Here is the input.
Amino acid sequence: MAGKNICRYLSLLVLLIVNISSAERIKDIAQIEGNRINYLQGYGLVVGLKGTGDGKATQFTVKSLANMLQKLGIVVDPNRLTVRNVAAVMVTAKVPPYAKAGMRFDVSVSSIGDAKSLEGGTLILTPLRGPDGQIYALAQGQVIVGGYEARGRGATQVKNVPTAGRIPNGAVLERDLPFRMDSSEVNIILDYPDFTTAKRIQDIINQRFGEGTAFALDSATVRVKIPEKMNPVDFLAEVENLEVSVSQTARVVIDGRTGTIVLGGNVRIGPVAVAVGSLVVKVKEKPQVVQPKPFGKGETKEVPRTEIEVIEEERRVVPLKGTTVKDLVDSLNSIGATPREIISVLQAIKSAGALRAKLEVL
Here is the structure.
């Protein structure tokens, strides 16, 4: 019986146990300030579609097409343009840190009108701007779509998202991204701020390069001085590969929509007893037709009839005496609880003060 419960539990719930390793490289838990991805975006047109572009009601597509033709020396009236092979799109890109002019990178293309599909389309030359409004790159090329849409008179078949796609190496950086690194010192920014981890990074760097090289400013920032006799690149390459013991907050994350529970490896639970029961109420309507007696003056009527059935499953009280994640999981398996019941159990255990972790519900 216990095996069936465990099988039912595993079929309904995805539960992940994350064990925090004893040591991590600094580059895996933090980043050098300025060494980050930069975002660019632009507005463009995709042409060459097979009748799946924007309709006439999408006015900005028609006006954009007229403006583009005007720049090419062709003057047309936007009110007289009717095309279905053009779609207005937003073009977005992520530029790697320290990118230089001439570097190529991928771009994503997404429809912003009422186009049905971008399959087979080509993005015409589109400038990509940064947050400061300056143009940093140009994008153009064949759009690759991972979905399709097939329409008929009585049915429509759609797979994935045909109104979004990518252009591999579709953009060229025209100017260097603005960045300046102080040659004397840099900041190391932790991905997840923690005072203990910041101090350990400070100590491991000072132990390797000498006292005073690193200083933790707060829970998220460690300031590092670059030695005068060392090349900054060589120094930072050595720093980011230093291993440090990570202090992680005990945390349980629950996604009730997908039935996913993630438990940190350092989650602990105190002694507590749990009983999970289910109460099912079934209401059935079975109306009956009543006929009058022969030669009577009565009328045929429908008489309502309601049946109510109450089913209460019996579940025994299960003590959770373990102090580790494995003990917690084994105890929940022995109950044979559903994902919804397990989420309720974890919330109740937290309310009882027995769950030694932060509980987050997405």
The radius of gyration is 32 Å. Residues 1-13 have pLDDT under 50 and may be disordered. The chain is about 20% helix and 35% strand. Residues 2-19+251-361 form one domain.
